[in-house]
Amino acid sequence: MAKTYGWLAEQLAAKGISVALEEQHDVRLPRHPLGAELDGLRLAADVAALDFETVLAPTSNPLVIARRVELGLQRPLPSVVEGLPPIERPLRPFDVPEPEPPASPTPPAGGTATLVDWRSRWGSNWVTTVRDQNPCSSCWAFAGTALVEAMVRVETSYWTRLSEGDLHDGVGSHCADGNNLGSVDDFLSAHGLADPGCWPYRTDDPVYAPSPDRDGRSVRMPRFTWVGSADDQKKWIDTTGPLATWFDVYEDFDAHPAGHVYRRSTDPSNHERGGHFLLVVGYDDAQQAWICKNSWGSGWCDSGYVLVGYGEAGIDQYAKAGLTGLNPDPWTKRRLSNGVLYESGNGAMHRNLEVAGASGAGVVTHHWREGGPPWTWGTSDHFASDAAVCPTLRGTTYHRNLEMVYLTRSGRLHHWWRAGGGGPWNDGGVFGPAGCQGVPGFVQGDYGTPGNFEVVVKVAGNRLQHLWRRNGAPWTWSAGPAFGTDIALSGATLVQGDYADSGHGNLEVVAVRNDGRMQHFWRRAADLTWHDGATFGAGVGSTPVMIQGQYGMANEAGPHGNFELVVARGGAIEHWWRDNASGSMAWRQSATFGSGIQTAVGLCQSSWGMNLEVVAMRTDGQLQHFWRDGGGWHTGPVIGPA
């Protein structure tokens, strides 16, 4: 005679799902892979209470800062600019209306919130898409990867896609092997976590052989923080982000229905199947439940998520694992900066701004700003003697090197690089045709590993010239096609975009025409041909700077982030943008700011709440910083002479 699960059977019967068990306990419910082992876990009761005022790493997320300030865990940060209010308010895209905050999470004065859900916190999603470990026993790799991805988003506002396979195969596991969070902690703290292009998730037990630039395309992080009591876990989720957790899987969990809090059936036939790891993305005191992201695909339960009752099935028996103080890699940030400005992983907060200017004497000067108070700019290096324009500066996957290309006084291009950990700037050599005339666009593309260097610059004949370097010996530059007509100025606008029809992303670039309009060009990856795009603007006589930011993205998979562009006109800076999420090809001007400006030379979307940061050259030869938050554009300090 068949047995059923009582209340669960009734819920599933309404959906036409049978959950009968035979007397021999032959389970008819769907079975999903597990793989969790206890090694490395700590009993929750054995973990000391956290001192949150000292354990939390500094964050650049102003929403999290505001929450910590509300709870008295930190003081408001002083403003970047004298006279502005301290940074403690939510910062929103200037082009997008700020949504009303949800009413339900409002906590009692000074107390932890009663509801936190990082899928919709402060009107935004902070959690990457649900994945499927099937058929491998790899929940530990999926929970660890989900934790890192979520914390990169929470701490820096960046979306990133990382690889469960890099973690799974990096620790030496096979598909059938289980593993534990101790192994995950050891691997991540020692080696970081790379993206799927470096090493993908596979189920056929390949020999681990990531790309040779893995060190430069891996998010780095410290060891886990173990959070013991339920009160500390809620406080951590409220003030820091998600947590990875152990969970005992019983037979009734595999087909648990959406919309219900999971509480284990006490039917004697409901046997334990094994251990599992989940990511806790929130909690709801009203329902007495943790909000958990699973790794059984988006078709399971509530689009891959499940509510698990407090204390159910061992979920609170062991301490949960948290991460803080992550250091994203250049590959994660590859579309988010251009021109003289780059946000590196250097400094105590891994948020330093790096700026490379060039003076009239041809000397390149490297300026930098620490990623936190007191926000002062310093100068670290002077080198070179042949720069005709400000360089285009990049972070690359060569051990996080800083690399730059600039136009020389003799009309050639010059490459320099500096090791990611610091040290002197190294001469990478002069290249390109004679007669180059503009500011070069320079990116590390996604062809090859390490990715090729790509350059677009104006040349004689009022055209644009594409050049590229295969990143391997003999390190020679090759000429691609010339394209465009009637070009007056090239700029630091070359972007390795994420529009793709061949496995590679298109290259995108904007140039200024002789009639004062700007024109967008793009290279279709499938056939490597350049195409004319839209024209926009008027009366432009200086070089633009462009990035592809992350405004408009719902998660790491898309939609496409906006193009953002700044250009000087009439002594001020114009901001233009294209709404890529909607599929519109129309460019829009959103704001004009600044005065006494000669040229916009740098643009990035920073980790400070997705602020846009701009560096411009003034008519007096000084570099000046501007930035945009939810309150609009602000005039920052003068950095120093270019």
Q: What's a concise summary of this model?
A:
The chain is mainly beta. It contains 7 helices and 36 strands.
Tell me what the structure shows.
With 642 residues, the chain is mostly beta strands. It folds into two domains: 31-49 and 102-322, Cathepsin B, Chain A (Alpha-Beta Complex), CATH 3.90.70; 337-630, Neuraminidase. Helices cover 10% and strands 33% of the residues. The chain has seven helices and 36 strands. The strands form nine sheets. Strands 1, 5, 6, 7, 8 and 9 form a six-stranded mixed β-sheet that branches. Strands 11-33-34-35-36 form a five-stranded antiparallel β-sheet, with no helix packed on it. Helix 4 packs across helix 5. The radius of gyration is 26 Å and the shape is globular. The relative contact order is 0.11. Residues 1-5, 19-28 and 88-109 have low confidence and may be disordered.
Query: How many domains is the backbone divided into?
Result: 2
Give the % helix. Answer: 10-25%
Largest sheet: 6 strands, mixed
CATH architecture of the largest domain: 6 Propeller
Over all CA atoms, what is the radius of gyration?
Answer: 26 Å
Which spans have pLDDT < 50 for at least 5 consecutive residues? 1-5, 19-28, 88-109
Contiguous helical run count: 7
Strand element count: 36
CATH topology of the largest domain: Neuraminidase
Corresponding CATH superfamily of the largest domain: Fucose-specific lectin
Structural class label: mainly beta
Terminus-to-terminus distance: 84 Å
**Would you state the CATH class of the largest domain?**
Mainly Beta
Shape descriptor reads: globular
Percent of residues in β-strands: 25-35%
Rounded mean pLDDT is 91
